[in-house]
Amino acid sequence: MSAVVYAHSVPGRDEVLWEPLAAHLTKVADRAERLAATFGGQELARVMGALHDIGKARDAFQSYIRGQGTSVDHSTAGAVIAERNYPAPYGRMMAYGIAGHHAGLANGCIAGSGLSSLKDRLAAGAATLLPVRCLTPDLDIAPTSVALAAPVLSEGFTHEFSAAFLIRMLFSCLVDADRLETERFYADLLDEPVERGCTLTVTDLRDRLNAHLAQFEGRTSAVNSLRAEVLTAVRARADDEPGLFSLTVPTGGGKTLSSLAFALDHAVRHGLRRVIYVIPFTSVVEQTAAVFRDALGSDDAVLEHHSGFDFGPADGSAPDDEGKDGARKLRLAAENWDRPVVVTTAVQFFESLFSNRPSACRKLHAIAGSVVILDEAQTLPLKVLRPCLEALRELARGYRSSVVLCTATQPAVTTDAGFRGGLDRVRELAPDPPDLYRRLKRVTVSTIAEPVSDEALAERLLNEPQALCIVNSRRHARDLHRRIAVAEGARHLSTCLCAKHRRAELAAIRQDIKDGKTVRLVSTSLVEAGVDFSFPVVYRAMAGLDSIAQAAGRCNRNGELPELGRVFVFDSPEDEGHRPPVELALFAQTAASVLRAHDDPLALDTLRAYFRQVYWLRGDEDLDAAPVGEGPDAIRGILNALRLHRRKHDFPFADIAKAFRIIESPLVPVIVPYRPAGEPDAVPRLLDALRHAPADKTGGIARALQPYLVQVPRSARAGLLKAGAAECIRSGEFGDQFVALVNGDLYHPDVGLDWEDPTFRRFETSIF
Fold this sequence. Notes:
Layout: E1 6-8, E2 19-20, H1 21-36, H2 42-51, H3 59-64, H4 76-85, H5 90-99, H6 118-125, H7 143-146, H8 160-190, H9 202-214, H10 222-235, E3 244-248, H11 255-270, E4 275-279, H12 282-296, E5 302-305, H13 323-336, E6 341-345, H14 346-353, H15 358-361, E7 371-375, H16 385-398, E8 402-407, E9 427-428, H17 433-439, E10 443-447, H18 454-462, E11 466-470, H19 474-484, E12 490-493, H20 499-514, E13 519-523, E14 537-541, H21 545-552, E15 565-570, H22 582-595, H23 604-616, E16 627-628, E17 635-636, H24 638-644, H25 653-659, E18 667-671, H26 682-692, H27 699-705, E19 709-713, H28 714-722, E20 726-728, H29 731-734, E21 739-741, E22 747-748, E23 752-753
Parallel strand pairs: 3-8, 3-9, 4-6, 4-7, 5-6, 7-8, 10-15, 11-13, 11-14, 12-13, 14-15
Antiparallel strand pairs: 1-2, 16-17, 18-19, 20-21, 22-23
InterPro entries: Cas3-like_dom, CRISPR-assoc_Cas3_HD, CRISPR-assoc_Cas3_HD_sf, DEAD/DEAH_box_helicase_dom, HD_domain, Helicase_ATP-bd, P-loop_NTPase
Family: In the central section; belongs to the CRISPR-associated helicase Cas3 family.
GO molecular function: ATP binding; endonuclease activity; helicase activity; hydrolase activity; metal ion binding; nucleic acid binding
């Protein structure tokens, strides 16, 4: 065996070109230290980097990288060294990340999600001996000094959530440092430089935004004047110390650009690194990212990261001006959020914060030292609300982040609003929110006393040249659209349309409204958060009061009507089967009760009464109710699970990751054959590539197919497969990961995928 111990081999190249283990450990330790310096965890991260691959010094691993024998565990050895040589709880905290830097963070003492527990791995690795020739970098850190190197655990913050959060953040630093250094080694060796990062800083972007906003100066309409007033007031607060903020501005008051302006000003003033904009719905992420790119004059500075974003086709063809290299840069930036502005979904943001997977956690350290804008905080699901609030609180108090709760209603999750266990010391940025509401009042909201049938609702829509109707389910949207489909201007929006189709429809509807054409739109709630439609008349099926407020934001949005816009809230008859889904029924019932007792449904005191019933009067157990673990030993609530395991820091990371879901959805994807007008037919080409690509080369194809997915109930997809209306591609290798629609007649140009009758064929006529 060679006297040199290697971390990375290069098949077919002389060993002199391979990377020595000591060099790799030193470089990862250095980089992890820099990444963790933002939140004061640099000494812990440096130790983790120096120990993470120490197990590669074993003779069995050195034989493996020379093509002899099979792969062996190289992560446990460093975890054992950390646990043995550093004081509690720091040795154990570092051991989690070292042991899991490839497979993921494990449970502390019980196996879960296919991972052995950390306790079992440490016990099994205790007897592992490293050869004498193993050279490690000089850590220059005394074990006792590490106990002073975690400021986020000092000053009374040593409770279990802080400890678990720090473990995950340190894990993020280690994983990213390891991946970046490995990438750098091979890129240098092959002379194939990897282009990462962005040359523009937050200061550059602040200056660009100023230039963009200057073009709106002098616009004197009442709404524009108020937006300018809000912008000025919000920017004046940028010098405030980092922490928790709220921005309560009614829909149409310009809170998107005002919040971005505050974030950039605040970041420049306090040396923060990036702006992360977190949005409830994917469709709104796309729109907001486009607004930011336009306002900042840069595509490269803005990373749009969500499950439906197309990073470019796998075959390298150029889908747009960025081409192959641009698509690759976006994919690389999405790995660790290496951009000054990130626009993402609540699913991506919060599920990453509670994940145990290296790929999901890799970007978490990028949140430290950033401004996080959380759009519509009240949309967070009740089941995981308290863990989400704890994560926001932890970012603000321990990781140099400022968090802005950006809402059109009110900061419903604060202690000032009466929410026990909510966020405290939240500073309002908007100037006098009640006065803003009065001055921005552009609609009247009326509740229709008697249930309204679909037939009567269709008649009402047909009596209006431009009208929007928002309902609570995809089925209701489709059924109602059928009644008006032959009429002029009939439109439909729901997640039965794939993301690519929705984008095209949104653009076409905006243009028709702008041109004064007839538009009668039936939609699900996907239009309610940030979609900049403005209709003179809006109908809204009974829902939560915040949803009704958002629906009202699509009515007379810019105050362009000579009179107030009209919003009507209605119920459907019981016999039509269009009552709110179970998960929405509580909010609808509460809203109906509150509306009976208040004259103005959108006034802040009305909304406060609504949230008091929805959030504040519920027990803590309802706001942290995800079951952690399985069977009779499952623990109700993520915070409770952490609390029960705090004594020995045996946190159940794998079980928490499995339990935490922003969207509880039994839905599964189907690839649909949508083809935008005037564009090449991409889906057949991608499916053909998927059928023939090596199994380890399908990731790019899967990403390129994401804009063509429709999520359906598992039973519906099973029905499509059974009827031969869909096929499972390479099921022997990928299971049911790739299911493609074969019967293209089931995907309609108006309502998207209709799976009710899998045998339907359109032939020469359409049922619509």
